[in-house]
């Protein structure tokens, strides 16, 4: 079942949580991208299932790289009571009633959420949502990796060409298999874009 875009994660209540930031999203994107680059070193010249893994991982890596710059922190407190015998229990916010016997505190949980209008797999759309400075940094880094992408139009055209790779490449068996996949022409450019984007965002 597809996850609803409006699904709200459950508040962890009395459980402790780990505070993460956008750099962990970049690290995750790098892991997907590095796998794609590594697999590309040993591909069959004909039909090779690893090609679909490269395309899927590469597209997901780019999606995560872009989304790492398009997030906001959501704060959601949990209201708890510490009873006289030391037990920690949840309390409803509108029922807080401090007494000398009960300590009531607030646990300020937070999580990262993709901004409205950015919850998509469409790479060109996500790229267009980035700040101009971030776009410039990415374009400059990618241009250093490949002569095929030197302008804003060229990077957008490429992202549009692979816009749906995360969706359509996961289930390659549903399409007609041919000796040499036509989308293979995007392989080397994708690898260069992955290297460039990682370079541009690694220290952001």
Binned strand content: 5-15%
What's the overall average pLDDT, rounded? 88
Terminus-to-terminus distance = 35 Å
Number of strands: 3
- Helix count from the secondary structure assignment: 7
Enumerate the strands of the largest sheet in spatial order, edge to edge or round the barrel: 2-1-3
Secondary-structure blueprint:
Elements (H helix, E strand, L loop, with lengths): L21 H18 L9 H19 L3 E12 L5 E3 L12 E12 L8 H7 L2 H14 L6 H10 L3 H4 L18 H15 L3
Antiparallel strand pairs: 1-2, 1-3
Describe this structure in words.
The structure is a single chain. The chain has 204 residues and is α+β, with helices and mostly antiparallel strands. Helix content is 43%, strand content 13%. The chain contains 7 helices and 3 strands. It has a 3-stranded antiparallel β-sheet, with no helix packed on it. Strand 1 and strand 2 (88-90) form a beta hairpin. Helix 2 runs parallel beside helix 7, helix 3 runs antiparallel to helix 5 (152-161) and helix 4 (132-145) crosses helix 7 (187-201). The chain starts with 21 loop residues before the first helix and ends with a helix.
């Amino acid at each position: 079942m597809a996850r609803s875009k409006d699904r709200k994660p459950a508040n962890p209540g009395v459980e402790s949580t780990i505070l993460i930031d956008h750099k962990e999203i970049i690290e995750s994107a790098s892991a997907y991208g590095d796998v794609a680059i590594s697999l590309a070193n040993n591909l069959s010249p004909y039909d090779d299932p690893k090609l679909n893994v490269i395309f899927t991982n590469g597209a997901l890596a780019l999606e995560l790289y872009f989304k790492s710059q398009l997030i906001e922190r959501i704060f959601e407190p949990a209201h708890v009571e510490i009873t006289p015998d030391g037990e920690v229990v949840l309390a409803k916010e509108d029922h807080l009633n401090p007494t000398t016997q009960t300590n009531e505190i607030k646990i300020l949980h937070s999580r990262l959420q993709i901004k409205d209008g950015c919850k998509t797999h469409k790479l060109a759309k996500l790229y267009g949502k980035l700040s101009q400075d971030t776009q410039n940094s990415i374009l400059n880094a990618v241009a250093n990796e490949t002569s095929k992408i030197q302008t804003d139009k060229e990077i957008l055209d490429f992202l549009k060409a692979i816009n749906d790779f995360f969706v359509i490449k996961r289930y390659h068996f549903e399409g007609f298999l041919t000796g040499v996949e036509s989308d293979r022409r995007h392989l080397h450019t994708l690898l260069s874009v992955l290297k460039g984007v990682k370079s541009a965002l690694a220290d952001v």
